[in-house]
Please model this.
Amino acid sequence: MAILSEENKVLIFDTTLRDGEQCPGATMTLNEKLQIADILDRMGVDIIEAGFPMASNGDFEAVRAIAQTTKNSTVCALARASRKDIDRAAEALEPATRKRIHTFISTSPLHMKYKLQMDPDAVYAAVVDSISHARNFCDDVEWGVEDATRSEPDFLCRLAEAAIKAGASTINIADTVGYTLPHEFSSLIKDLLRRVPGIDKVRISVHCHDDLGLATANSLSAVQAGALQVECTINGLGERAGNASLEEIVMGLKTRYDAMPYHTGIDTEFLTEASRLVSNITGFVVPPNKAIVGSNAFAHESGIHQHGVISHRGTYEIINPKAVGASGTQLVMGKHSGRHALRVKLSELGYTLGENALAEAFERFKALADSKKEISDEDIGSLAEEIIDTVKDATFKKKEHIGVTSLNITTMADATAEANVTLSVGGRPETMTANATGESSFSAIISAIKQLVPHDDELAFVRLNGLSMNDNTQTKVTVQLGNGTRDLIGEGSGADPNMACARAYVHALNQRRYDDTSSSNNDGGSSRDSSAS
Ligand code: KIV
Ligand code: ZN
Model:
């Protein structure tokens, strides 16, 4: 059982709007940044790094606007170890309810020599001065150690001690170039915790880049070593190969609580929505195989896997798709899929097949799969429709998309009629009602149905037959609708001829597939999610 206390809470510091935006081509407008900040705030991100105010006026304005609108998260602004940068960050953060200044400097020999052109003593002095200066504006000051993983450990410890004395409450250990390995990073964090006086009073943060594809692994290994803040971005957006991805860190901790007993404050059901928002805004397409939020993250094609997840989702899924806001387990139909999955897919689309029909459907499906890379729901629907016409299978039945719930006809003195029609559409529980008048009860019914389910098809012909069943006379109605491309034939029966007409008309409409309003899981979702482990 998860024990959720402050001691084992890992703070999530999102830097999509700062490091993420530094990714070439990911520039965002103010309005787009506000949309992203809003979802980060709602999903429970602890700290939003909103930008680098000294970098541009646009960044300054964005940090200020986010500071004004963010309700729960702490808003953070980045600053170099310079008073001017810090003043600008503080000014941008003024309206924030909770604010943090993140001041950083490089500490590796390579960076100090070639980038900063400063000797270690000058870096030491800059650390002390920048943190002390930032503390004039807010209590919450983070010291960022750029290129920490390529720095001299003794020097790093000396600087960390000075930073704590100067007033930093978070020490951010950055693997700026994505160079470290999980076991090395873990040792570094343990070393700092063991060697730096006063480190128990502050929080260690980690900021990992993904140059070797290790950003998530390094971050999680640091958490196990005692880091209680992780810096990350939605979809792993960021400089070069990107940053550690927020969704991976959060779901890694949640899914493997057994091995890493830490929790975050993130409402994970927002993860898919946040990923799509960032992808749409930046134009950075999420690869289909991206962990947690890729379109294939919960998709199964092979027959063996499909059979497994149909029997028990846990066989091939370690995360419930609903937990990350995804639509559900998807059975992707392709040449590796089996008969069992085809039956389930057909049923999701509204078709129940008897054994003969299924055998025929499976044969045709395999032939199609050999000639086509991706088999869509539309393809499967068409295949089922063809089989309806050719295979006589008593148990073969197509679920109706539109159903007539009730019908009332009022006939006027002048022989015109008013119809009050209530329909259920797409399997939704709520119904829809419309009134219409017409020259006959049937034309009034058609007008009312057209209001509820707009369509272009015109009535081509109607035939009414009376049939007697044990003194109970039933009317059987056959209608034909046409729209120039395909004729739709419908049949309906009942003791009331008007109801029989309405049923026949709706039955004809049901021969066409209403993909836009369909409830038949055309997103590939599955009701089996309720059996999630
Ligand atoms: O990667 C990095 O070192 C950074 C710093 C600003 C923390 O982004
Ligand atoms: Zn970075």
About this structure: Residues 355-371 form the longest helix (17 residues).
